[in-house]
Amino acid sequence: MKVLIIDDEEKSRKLLKLLLEENCPRISEISSAGNLQEGVRLINEIEPEIVFLDIEMPGYSGIQLFEFFAPEQIKFQVIFTTAYSEYAVKAFKLNAVDYLLKPLRDEQVAAAVDKAIDELGKSQINERLTELRNTLQASKVKKIGLPVSNGVLFVKFEDLILLEADRMYTKVYTSSNGEILVSKPLKFFVDMLSDATEFYKPHRSYLINLKFLKQYVSSDGGYIVMENDKAVSISKDKKDEFLQLMQGV
Q1: Structural domain ending residue among the three candidates 109, 138, 167
Q2: What is the mean pLDDT of the segment spanning 79-83?
Q3: Are residues 91 and 159 part of one domain?
C-alpha cells in the first residue's frame, strides 16, 4: 500500500510519516511532497493508493490538485489534513470527504487509513470531490494552476490577460509570466473560470480578462485589442452584447 503526503510544512510531513509507520502496518511505502507541483508529479509517477493532502498551503488550495486529473484518473483516496476554518470543516462533513484536523493523533490517522482502504476502488470519490469543490467555491483562492512541462505554475487571476485556443492546447497570456502553452483545451479554463465575472468569451477561440481591455476597433468587422497589444476576434453575434457590457465597465 503506497501513500503520498502533500504538505508545505516539513514538520507536518515528518510527523504524519511517523504516525503512519507506527500505526498503519498495511502501508509499505510513504512518499512526500512539499508543494502541489511535486505532488502532481509523484502521483503520476508512483500511483499511490492514498494521498494525504494539506488543504491550505501558501498561495493556493490543495483542492486544486484535482484540476490536473481526469475523473477516471483519480483512483486514489484522499484524506485532507487541515487546520482550516470551521466553514471548510463543515463542507468536508457535508460531502463525506475524510479529513484530519491538525494536530494529528495516532488513533485518528489509523482510523482514516482503514476507512480509505475500505473505500478503494469505489467510484464515489470523484462525485464527493466535485461536490466539495463546489461547496468551497466561495473560497479565497484567486489563483489558477497551469500544467507545464516541469509541474504546475500558479498564476493569479489578476495576471491573466487572455486565453487563446490552439487546437487541443491553450495559449495563456499573462502579465507576469508572458505567454504559456498549456496542454488543456480552452473549454477546461472556460469552465474553471465560469464564476469569475472579469472573464468574457467574445469568440469561441478566446477568453479575455476585461480588466486588460485596451481598445475596440470597429474596422475590419470589429475586433478587440488587449493591453499586451494582442488582437482578439469578436463573433458577430457577440458584438452588440460586448459593446453593451463595455458601457458598464
Answers
A1: 138
A2: 80
A3: no
Judge if pTM exceeds 0.85: no
What is d(CA 144, CA 193) in angstroms, rounded to the nearest whole number? 9
Looking up residue 188, the CATH number of its domain turns out to be 2.40.50.1020
The count of structural domains within the chain is 2
Q: Do 127 and 9 have their domain in common?
A: yes
* β-strand partners of 142: none
Domain boundary pick from 98, 120, 138: 138
| Helical axes 124-135 vs 86-94, angle rounded to 10° | 150
The CATH number that applies at residue 47 is 3.40.50.2300
CA gap 191, 234 in Å, rounded: 19
Residues 24, 113: one domain? yes
Residue type, 171: K
Q: Which residue has the higher pLDDT, 138 or 217?
A: 217
C-alpha cell at 48: 499511490
**Closest to 82 in 3D by CA, of 99, 106, 64:** 99
**Cα angle for residues 128, 131, 134 (degrees, 5° grid):** 150
**Mean pLDDT taken over the chain:** 83
DSSP states of 32-98 as a string?
Answer: EESSHHHHHHHHHHH--SEEEEESEETTEEGGGGGGGS-GGG--SEEEEEE---HHHHHHHHHTT--
Instruction: Please tell me whether residues 147 and 132 are part of one structural domain.
Output: no
CA dist., res. 26 & res. 179, Å (int)? 46
- 3-class secondary-structure state, position 117: helix
Summarised one tens digit per residue, pLDDT across range 18-57 is 999 999 999 999 999 998 889 999 999 999 999 998 877 7
